[in-house]
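Model: Ready when you are.
Researcher: Fold this.
Model:
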Amino acid sequence: MGWQAKNIKLSYAGAKILPLTDSVFIKYNAFKKQFGEDGSIVVIGVKSEKIFQKETYNKWVQLSNELQKLNGIKGVLSIGKFFELQKDTLHQKFTVKPLPGKTITTDVEMDSLKSKLNQLPFYKGLLYNTESNATLMAVTFDQKILNSAARNPILKEIEEKALAFGKSEGIDVHLSGLPYIRTATSKLVSNEFVLFLGLSILVSALILVIFFRSFSAVFYPILVVIMGVVWSIGTLVLFGYEITILTGLIPPLIVIIGIPNSILLLNKYHNELKKHGDKQRAWQITVERISVTTLIANVTAAIGFGVLYFTGSELLMQFGSVAALNVMFTWLMSLCLIPAIFSYLPAPKNKINGTHKANFLDKILTKTDHLVQQKSATIYLVTIILTLVSLIGVYRINVNGYVVDDLPKSSKILTDLKFFEKNFEGILPLEISVNTKRKNGVMSVSTLNKIDKMEEMIAAYPEFSRSISLNTGLKYATQVFYNSDTNFYRLPSDFEKNFILIYAANSGKGNGDMLTNFVDKPKQTARVSFQMADIGSKRLDQVLLELKPRIDSILSPKRFDVTLTGSSIIFSKGTDYLLEHLFESIGLAIVLISLLRLAQFKSLGIMFISLLPNIVPLIITAGLMGFFGIPLKPSTILIFTIAFGLASDQTIYFLTRYQQELNLTNYSVSKVITDTITETGVSMTHIALILFFGFGIFTASTFGGTVILGFLLSITLIVALIFNLTLLPTLMLWLDKNKKRKKISEAEVAKNLENLDDH
């Protein structure tokens, strides 16, 4: 696994949330196959009046030319590197004249070029904003290297050159675009991968030191979970997966979830040593009795992850399957290696025939038992009130996801994105394909006018930029046909169209590229491209709902097949998809874990009752999200299935001990409840604290979603502990108070108590 793990790679593609079979994703892939990648542009933006001073402008031109020469860059478009169409009446074609074409040496030349730019409406709102003096440079990547590590050094060089320009001119430079955002995010994921792995090991080591105060009891469990980490990374490679924002969390999760296995084994081992001091016998009994309990606990944890596989989302399938498998691998390694290693080590002398002194935790558990025995009505009432209040919060939950909202508000990625949203209505791609359902259907003037009407309607929304399409190209060509008169920046008439298209057809490959990018070969389907702000999935859904009937009123569905797609829509639909399948995955986890409990305890009553201490904490967590304005989005949706699986572990620990003592003694149900709370409650609390502080490390993340994930998981597991030590025993007391039990002799009771699993 170590050999495989060295081949792990970071993912540079966008998160694949939607399944490959989803209709929205199928349409998106069909669009990319027809017209190419939609998110291939990096933009560099500045806002300064100096940009039209000849010295600064010449440096902007130089920057544009330098970036154009970089390997992997397909093209650069800016006010320092744009083109002007000119009419060649002799050959009946358009020629492309690069501007500025030379170094600007005088203010008169600068004013002339600026005037020329203002006479080209094609570029207005695309490359510059006349109101704010903002301008941008669009750098288009070669699609062959777009989603690979090869783009990293190119992006780094682009960033260095852009920032060097800004420094030399004293101008703030802003960079954005999907390739830039994804690369910067991948870099943060890489950094946090190392950070969280280190923090998880450190926190686990500190907890082991507090619990055992022994070098060997710290070193060897840590060694085992590190092996589990190696296995998890090796598994990712073997499955052909890469490190994403989610799979990057698996190694620290393996550490956090794997350490309790060692603690349970060592606790039981030390307890056995206190009884008889025989190391060999102590380990034999430990393995016999802890293996089943930890097996079931780890299976429930694995179910919490594994059900994510059935969402159909590639992102969650990768995370869920690898996490579930390696939870079980790590459990198996702990069960095999910890006893084997410690059987060679000397038994700790302070544990042999030792005595236990009541501590603060023991006193809290004693009071908890009193509450269960004497105040059951209070527990029920508090549970009902908390649940009802939380349901109000659940009703207020906002389902909303942003492309970059997991980044802190102070992040340069976010502030740069806001710059482009303020000055150019954003940089996230929204693509529209208009299928006319007939060959050459796009070239009809009537169709072009309808598409133009649709473009104007969409561009009127403040969330969208002006469009780029065949229409904008034809408007520019019409203007040039009429000697660059801005009054003729419009679509050609049916009569004019024939002349203009003849000019375009004779213009060679340069203009053919434009047609290829925005019209398919049969001229049946047209592409319209917008840039948009990161408005969130909720607002985007509303806008798309509004647009659908308005587009249909312009382009009748009987004659046209209009598809809205692009990375923005894929992300929005991914958020909706995850929410839709959240309830399915939680429902599946509940069913599987319930069946596991039914198989273990063979009681329908226990199966149903034991669900409440696990479900109520999830409702409370969802309520907190509603009250504190934490939206449901891809990063926070995971909380519920993971928390349910881990909270179920605590229920297993309690019920296993309770059922054992109930079956092996003559004690009353009340006495058995007391013993279970005061004895098993210690291990339950220890494990809950490990998970609390373990998941707490994720609050150190740069990503807001990961911070919330860590915080809410920690809170949920502590709340689950409280309900498993209060509500669960109260319900069991009610369920079994009249239960008939066979009498067992005092000698058998004594023998059973000696052998009872008291981890």
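Researcher: Now this one.
Model:
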Amino acid sequence: MKVTAHQLLFSVKLFIAAMIAFAVAVRIGLPQPYWALVTCCVCMNPTTGAIRSKAVYRFTGTLCAGLTTLVMVALFASTPLLLIVVAGLVATAAFGASFLDRTPRSYGFQLFAITLMLVAVAGVDHPEAAFDTVVARVSEIGLGIVVTTLVDSVIAPRSLAGTLRSGLQRWLPGMERWANDVFDGHERDAKEEHDRLKILADISALSQMTALLRYDPTIARGELRQTLAIQQRLLRMVPLLSAIADRITGLGAEEREALIPCLAEARACLAAGAPPEGGLADRVRHLPIGTGQERPWHQLVHDALAAMLVEVLTLWNEVKRIDSALMGEARLDRDLARSVRGTAAAPLPPDFGHALRMAAGIGVAYVLLCGLWLATGWHQGPNAVLIGTVALSFFGGGDEPGEAIAMFGRFAALALTLAAILCYALLPLASDFPTFAMAMGLFMLPIGTWAAVNPMATLVLAFGLSNINLQGAYAPMDFGAFLEASFASLLGIFVAFLGAGLFRTWGAGHQVQRFLRMEAWEIAQLSRSATRRLREIYIQRALDRISVMTARLAATGQVERSARLIARLRVGVTVADLRILAKALDPDTRQATEQLLDRFRREFDKPQPSPDLLSLIDRALDYLWSARREGSDVPTDRAMHSLAGLRIALFGHAPAWIPAS
């Protein structure tokens, strides 16, 4: 493997920070100076934003855990068993909370739980030393954080700005191709639909990066807000493009022929990033529709198509203007600038079911390992408890937790082997700090080079250095004690492997089915009660689910299901619109809409909705058509467009709706 200059730089920065932190910790007399060194290994990252965000979350989690420990010790010092139980409950809750927050902030919850077990659980037999231990641990970790941040700030800090701009360079051409395919009437196959969802997943990934970008000193807040504004407009275009494609596909030959000039104009606006001309919508609305009974249905389709074309082109125009401002090529007008300033990162919806299952697995692993510790009095019991819960928290949350935890076990075994070489072959040769640094360099520099491209190598460093007696005056740990500590760690990993399967079904296919059930439940809830805010929350959740399902569909060979995902999103949005608009409709129409939504809840997730549901949609359209003939109003028109959209999404281009009168 070719080693790049970037890898060498990362390794050197890590080594310098670790040696400075360790030397300072020894100099000022901290009791466990290796924690400062280990903190440097964990916090060092190729990018400055990631280092600073992790530093904040790690220190906050450690400090809060230290204060919580002091409170618990004050309350339960006289009953050690109760202290272990309470500490386990609090740590399990913190680990569970880490799965609810899907941004790098989750690291703070994880460190809170880990520190709680390091201080409260491991020190349960010596509550009188709790205050000194908390102060020492916070000081050691704080020192490592400060040194890592300073070294990165001085030696070639690396910004995420390039990653941000390269993302925009992928998103905009991808979305433009998508829109052009729609305007060309290009028929989509399963692979093309899946490739489009990859673009969506790429755009959605910015939401997870936002927490890191806020800590990057080279990225201005205005630049970040502009990127988020582009992201959110692109996400709004996704269901619109899907709906436009379905409506164009359902047009008759004469209508499609007449639409060609309008779509050519739309493509020209798209290429130029220009706003739609005022007459475009009118020309689409007045496409030839004949004089037969199907005229009202065709007019509905044309009206909705005109509105969606205008909305897509308006959004794209705003995207291009914001992009030009981001590149320093133009300035935003007052209204768009105000809109951009009000942009916030789209929240990543928490998965409560997943978090509860993970917390349950971690809780069981904690109980089993604590039970073994208390039953045997094994002095390595706390180490097994710590490693078991850490393995589940950091590696048990994926689709295949067994494979991830087994990989963690392999890297842990490698770390312990290398730590034994360092402990018993290299460090005994050191007689002063220069020779100590040389020995540590032989261990750290090659692994640091590897860690620049493989985060698991960081585990080798941190895990290995945590399992040797690394003090200011080095004395090798008794080899038997080292083997015993290593066995405790591997035992904890084995129990974590067992705990990972107690409350979860493994596999990407199961996760896809679970997400689809969540989607169906949310749409059913919207059919009962909806507001504008709930509608927007649903759209955010649905787009997020689609993005996380994309890779899973490919992994399980279900790429053909990609097209249905956005169709389900459109159904959910339409149902929410109907529920909101129903309140403003006349009593008869509202009753027909209620009956439709009741039937929809029973049939939505069936492979093929029944003809009875289609009849209820047409019946509601009949009522709305009558109300429209008596006097058109905005709620009636919007409700008709929503019903037409629901009809197309559920039944495709079934025989056109024909008004009863």
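Researcher: Key takeaway?
Model: The chain has three domains: 5-158+351-503, 160-342, 512-651.
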